[in-house]
Amino acid sequence: MIRSPRRLVAAAVSIAAGTALLASTASPAVTSAAPGTSLVSSTSTGAQSADIVVHSASMNRNIPLSVLLPKNRDKPAGVLYLLNGAGGGEDSASWQAKTDIKKFFANKNVYVITPMQGAYTYYTDWVNADKKLGVNKWSTFLGKELPSVVDSTYKTNGKNSIAGISSSATSVLNLAIEHKGLYKSVGSYSGCASSSSDMGMMYIRMVVKSRGGADPENMWGPYEGGQWKEHDPIVNAAKLKGLSLYLSAATGVPGKYDTPAYTPDPDTLSDQIVVGGTIEAATRVCTEMLASKLADLHIPATVDRPAAGSHSWHYWQDQLHKSWPQLARSIGA
Fold this sequence. Notes:
- By secondary structure, this protein is of the alpha/beta class.
- The protein is 36% helix and 18% strand.
- The chain is built from 10 helices and 9 strands.
- It has helices at 5-16, 95-98, 101-104, 138-153, 167-178, 198-211, 217-220, 226-230, 266-296, 313-331, and strands spanning 40-46, 49-56, 61-68, 77-83, 110-115, 156-165, 183-189, 244-248, 302-304.
- The protein has a 9-stranded mixed beta sheet with strand order 1-2-3-5-4-6-7-8-9, with helices on both faces.
- α5 links the parallel β6 (156-165) and β7 (183-189).
- α1 runs parallel beside α6 and α1 (5-16) runs antiparallel to α9.
- The longest helix has 31 residues, at 266-296.
- The protein is globular, with a radius of gyration of 19 Å.
- The N and C termini lie far apart (38 Å).
- It comes from Gordonia phthalatica.
């Protein structure tokens, strides 16, 4: 049983302290964009995969993304926007590097789009530029700029889903709230949606300040200000009505992947059990809070509660597999 979420997160802190697609053989260089537009370039990385670059007008920079293509590209297909965690795919911790998504989606008719940038930003629109992380308008990019580029470039059916892990498990809920009607479903794995509570703010400081070296108040303003509540999916849970919701978090108790058989490096395994276990226990508390609020509002949600497991990739791969049938139904995949 989880006794003190604030103490658990504090322990973790101390430990962890439109446009046209260029040919697939084209160079990844992006030509200059007209004001207010986004251009795409693409380099094929396999029969069903590509690395693309989209110019974000709101951030005035080029954003790299990974794309998995449908098995059958003759018919329109839905889109799954799949977000990386705190590192934004800029480090080695990404869906592409840590999971089987390329194999898993090889026989499925869906576009899978993953930004490979956005570390420690929570994929939100920051109120101020940050000395460390610069200008961040990720909600604008993901919710307004990118979908129009994707839909005009690929043969999509206009139906979107979004999923994310850890810090991005909060982001996907906020993105669905902010861009009503854009997504049909949301997968939120091991997140802390209680972003305006003491516990939630502590978790965000761990990601943005302790790991990213940035100022969290540049994200949503002063801690006591209204923007923190505006970006709290539990406070705004009523706005999730109508979405197909999948939530998951384990207990932090070591599970089958927290063993040398799956994580042979002793230092990595130790961090996974101690740090990853502590963080996962805290996200379980947050997930139960959101599940309870949704239940009070009579908003349906699938909530998966594994009895064991840490805050790590093998478990998130399992959750993607488990949630996929529900996400797929919502977008006609």
